[in-house]
Amino acid sequence: MNARAHVFELALEGREIEEVVGSLFNTLLLHRTLGKFQYQQEGSFSTGTVGLVDEDCDFIDFTHVRVASEELNVQVKREIGAFRDTLRNLLTPHSGQISLEFYERKRARWLFQAECIPWEVWTVKLDVITLSNEHDRQIYRDRLAEMLMEKVMHISDIMNRHEYVPKMPSQAELDLIFDTSFLDVQPYLFKISHQANGPSYSSVGTTMRKFIKDTLSL
Amino acid sequence: MSDSVKQNVQDRKKFDTFTRYFIYKSIQIIVQSRLGEKIITKSNPTATRPDWFNLAIIDNNDVQTEARKVIAGQQNLLSQNVCTEISLRTAEGDAMVLELWYISLDTNQFDPDASISYTVYNRMGIALKSVFSVSRVTPAYKLARKQKACASDYVICYRVYLGEPNFYFLGDGYQKSKVGSAPSPYGTLNVSVAYRTKLLISPQKTGKEAPFFVKDDHFKPEGSEKQTSPPRPCYIRNRRTSASELDTQLSGAELSSTSPAQKGDKPPVHLSQPIRILGDNLVTQKEDFRPKSAPEKQSDFREFHRVGAFVQMPSSRPTIRKEVDDIPFLTLLQPTSYQNTADVQSIVIKPMLSNGTIGNTKVENTNIEITNSADSESNKSTSSLTSAPEDFVMVELKTPFYGADANSDLGKFYRECQTVPSLAMFEEDPSVTETLDEITTQLEVFESNMNDFDDFVTSLQQDAE
């Protein structure tokens, strides 16, 4: 199965990395998060409520909505923070990419190990630029907010095409589709990975496939 | 066969219910995003009573009433678009439509296999999440967030109506975008937004001019816009609710919207007609700093009513006038009661009981101790308005960076710093030959004075010995 891939390319200053990536990933996760399932008995469950938080940015004039879950927020921030640090510690070239990958898991069977199959990958490619003065910075900041607006609208457009998402699982298979580690909400299984200097061609799925092939060839 | 018919009827009923709540929730999300506040709701994993579309949206009663009123006017749900119009109204009376959100049902596109209870319901939930996301990124959101700070300049209003959206009022170059959609066996539910990109108010297009606009579908019975109510302020939570107060603030046109009985008596108010709208700060600016207007309601606006130093409460003023009519500034020395004011703790007045006479009038001296007079510096000039104008000589205070528009002053200062002219010495840069000539001349002068320098050094050595 081929995963849907979407790529955003942006140029920004180092200080804006966290907020720009956070705005996009939080918007994506909002659409890919459900209320927590509470099973009464097999086949019957109730769904919890997803709260929402307006999140203002400090370095750009932009507000986005994220899921009200501190655990989820901390995890996403940690991943994006690591990407920011990697990128800012680079002397040159200042570029990199971070991906948010939604995947489903297949259980390990006899000879085969567990496999993770991505079904949607969102990649944000960033070029870090340096602006010489505050005037340029202000102009670019406004432009960046406009670009983010376009990206959020694009995300909404894609999400409302209602393309493939994994089927609703039974209670036993819930953790193959959803990340059940959060106490308050239930996002689809996701993984955030980043890389500086050049594109990344690996994903959870391809890595696992490579691993399985290597195992079988022994 | 009858079972499938029964199932179809039930599905249709479910779809109508879901659609109705989808419309209500969409309107809530849109209007609440224009309140000018950050919205924060909590996730609830163990919701005993499930929320619609599993989203924590706290209904605003005024908006809900308005939405229900409009939807009730439809025989078949979404036979006409449900439009939510967001507009801006300036203090000068100009009005400008910022954006139009419209919900429609496209019966030409449908998904016959989608289950109503699960698939369509979830799709509606995703569409609402998109409404959440997109409502925060359009230009109107930024204006709405700033409306509290700029309450004296403008307020954001909303209006819900049935019919075709009036894109004409969005000006040239407006943008349209589909926000959310939920395909179902009965058609595809769409939420779209059209928003203004040019945010400058041009005088000829404002409500003051009231241009006569002839629509091309003027004689079309279905689909033409039904004007159900005039725009209402989004920022309603803190609005003063007393009918008498509203009378002083709102025009009759807006009042009519709250009363269905009166609605038919008045002509529908077109958007371009100026309609007086308020936020709490606007009320403060216009009236609340004047104790004459509503002194008895002091406790109602404690949050924003600050009493400056030397302000006289209205109740004490008549007695002061009798006693000290001829002596300027004497009112400052009178003991004053501040029981009903919000900032009473910032001003402590201790009467001193020594009696004295000034001129022919016997007065009681007071010692006024101000513990925190700098608390509301920005309110100084406004506060002086609250005292009796006859007793004061108005001295305009000009504090640094404070003015009618503090932002522009600071901005101006900042720009001046950025564009500071270069020093003259760098502009008059001498050429290399000139510099060399100058050095040669200097060396010649020094050489001619060499004997003097030697004498000076010798004299220093002699002194040291």
Helix and strand arrangement:
The complex is a heterodimer of chains A (218) and B (465).
Chain A: E1 4-12, H1 17-31, E2 33-35, E3 37-41, E4 44-47, E5 52-56, E6 63-67, H2 70-89, E7 95-106, E8 115-128, H3 134-159, H4 174-177, E9 185-187, E10 190-196, H5 204-217
Parallel strand pairs in A: 1-8
Antiparallel strand pairs in A: 2-9, 3-4, 5-6, 7-8, 7-10
Chain B: H1 2-32, H2 61-72, E1 82-90, E2 95-106, H3 116-135, H4 139-146, E3 154-162, E4 175-184, E5 187-195, E6 232-233, H5 243-249, H6 252-258, H7 260-263, H8 280-288, H9 317-323, E7 347-358, E8 361-370, H10 380-386, H11 406-418, H12 424-427, H13 432-448, H14 450-464
Antiparallel strand pairs in B: 1-2, 1-3, 2-5, 3-6, 4-5, 7-8
Provide the structure class of chain A. alpha+beta
Which CATH first-tier class of the largest domain in chain B would you pick? Alpha Beta
Beta-strand residue fraction of chain A? 25-35%
Number of helices of chain B: 14
Please tell me what the overall shape of chain A is.
globular
Radius of gyration of chain A: 19 Å
Taken together, the total number of domains of chain A comes to 1
Give the chain pair forming the largest contact, with residue counts: A-B, 42 and 38 residues
β-sheet strand percentage of chain B: 15-25%
Percent in helix of chain A: 25-40%
**How is the biggest beta sheet of chain B arranged?**
6 strands, antiparallel
Instruction: Give a count of the beta strands of chain A, DSSP E runs of length 2 or more.
Output: 10
